[in-house]
């Protein structure tokens, strides 16, 4: 399992691995927003938490189809399925690798990009916390979508359509934590809901992903 | 490994039925049959990638090392990294014998992307030796290999059989494995009918 994680991380940072893809997209979106909505800091700081969350979510979405597609194309997914690793373990490791290469850089970059959106000082901590807590859920749900669409040519569109509705609860509560934090309000309720979604998906979805992957490999 | 009255199919359509054979340790079985006769489907079923339509397979599962048409190589990883990864997956550590057996010396640090088709195939087959599994299930293992490499591969299979392993191969060419039994799958062709159940939910 560790070998699989290390291999995926190594592949991600090598040429063509798409490590910087999500991060670059996140950067572009947040840089472009002030140009689009105008330089009024009051408006920007009000929408900053939501914009950061939507940017992170779309950046996450961008790299989802790579989770299984590359392994499917070169046949390693078939070979992994016949290896002594449990399929549930494989999909969990795949989601973890996706989070480390996509989610974690987004979490770390978000406070820096918050400056561009004149995020209120009280918001930095909560943007960081909400993204750190919410992005694992995005990766796990995304892995489920990727498992559903593996083997489909140009499955990216279907993947987005399948996954986006599933992302909505995470987005609502994640952005709510960040917004309330930025405005200095109590964050406990949405934070607990966000944590519930993350841990719930983490506990349940790998089994669903493994089941659909087995069916798709037939 | 024992297969009894096995029926396999692809996409809900039965392909082969009534297939029975035994593969004893130290033995090799070569599957023959024209294109589309169901050799790949049979091997995938035995490897556990798809469920059988009927019949039983005993002694497969965790004892199988499966090699398909594609080699499962990562083009951005070197030969050693590719091989070491699969060795670790199968909880093995020694990749040296595999490098020797398939003449991959001198290519160790080359990214798999820069290998020729035959070299990739050799690396894909070398993977079998680091799995430490008893039953090799091979689907057209000799595609894009030259005659010298085919001989080398036959030598590796012979070595595996001598160590008490067994091999099930689907191939069209003569490997020079005189001791191997041959099974033609053509007579086991299933009568064409469409399954009523949706196989996705079986």
Automatic annotation (TrEMBL), chain A:
- Any GO BP: cytochrome complex assembly
For this UniProt entry, which segments traverse the membrane?
12-37, 43-64, 96-117, 123-150, 157-178, 190-213
The entry's keywords = Cell inner membrane, Cell membrane, Cytochrome c-type biogenesis, Membrane, Transmembrane, Transmembrane helix, Transport
Any one of the GO CC terms: plasma membrane
- Where located? Cell inner membrane
Top-level taxon in the UniProt lineage: Bacteria
Task: Extract the GO molecular function terms from the UniProt entry.
Answer: heme transmembrane transporter activity
Q: What membrane topology does this protein have?
A: Multi-pass membrane protein
Return any one Pfam family short name: CcmB
Asked if Membrane is a keyword of the record, the answer is yes
Q: What is the protein's major site of localization? A: membrane
The record's family statement is: Belongs to the CcmB/CycW/HelB family.
Functionally, this protein is described as follows: Required for the export of heme to the periplasm for the biogenesis of c-type cytochromes.
Name used for this protein in its record = Heme exporter protein B
- Species lineage: Bacteria, Pseudomonadati, Pseudomonadota, Alphaproteobacteria, Rhodobacterales
